[in-house]
Amino acid sequence: EVQLQASGGGLVQAGGSLRLSCVASRTTITIYTMGWYRQAPGKEREGVSCINRRGDNTYYVDSVRCRFTISRDNAKNAVYLQMNTLKPEDTANYYCNAKSSLSGRVYWGQGTQVTVSS
Predict the structure, then answer these.
(1) Residues with Cβ within 8 Å of residue 82, at least 6 apart in sequence
(2) Looking at CB atoms within 10 Å, which of 37, 68, 87, 103 has the fewest?
(3) Pairing state between β 10-13 and 112-117
């Protein structure tokens, strides 16, 4: 069973930065598309960003484009989300996920809370 461990959340002032990390265990992430989602209180979970297996193709939701950068280090079994110029509306619980290119199965990690104060 794939396990994903997310970390790096915290409390930051608007305009600040955070870097989220997600490390996978019991697998190698080379076969997975990796992504970050977030869920704010009272809102549905939304996709924030994802990155393909080789790391040469990325997607960002419009609200974070040019502020967030997703990257991956397959040797470390890790995916990262660099978040700059944070806004209060970025406040949410952030989750990483992995989608297998072989089975299509999706795995989720536990969330890491990001709180941006105004």
Answers:
(1) 17, 19, 68, 69, 70, 71
(2) 103
(3) parallel
